[in-house]
Task: inverse folding
């Protein structure tokens, strides 16, 4: 039987780079608490400490852990269908 073409709803994290400010989150080491909270290690500070994190959106599970860990509300979860 042919499967119905039901689109899976996908969620992923999105960083607002106008709000994100690692030195405010961690003045000493510049580490991103949201990236640290990601259980799937798909949010990373690719350019090192004091730099904004990026999200590997294809692998993001939309679990909200990063959003909840961000003290500046710079992470949003987007839903696409
Ligand atoms: S916790 Fe939020 S504001 Fe702080 S560096 Fe990470 S994404 Fe940016
Ligand atoms: S939504 Fe979950 S999987 Fe995606 S970046 Fe945030 S913590 Fe990681």
Result:
């Amino acid at each position: 039987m042919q499967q119905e073409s039901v689109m899976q709803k996908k969620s992923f994290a999105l960083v607002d780079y106008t709000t994100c400010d690692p030195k405010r989150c961690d003045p000493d080491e510049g580490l991103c608490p949201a990236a640290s909270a990601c259980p799937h290690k798909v949010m990373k500070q690719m350019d090192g400490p004091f730099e904004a994190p990026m999200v590997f959106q294809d692998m993001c599970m939309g679990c909200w852990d990063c959003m909840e860990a961000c003290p500046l509300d710079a992470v949003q979860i987007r839903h696409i269908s």
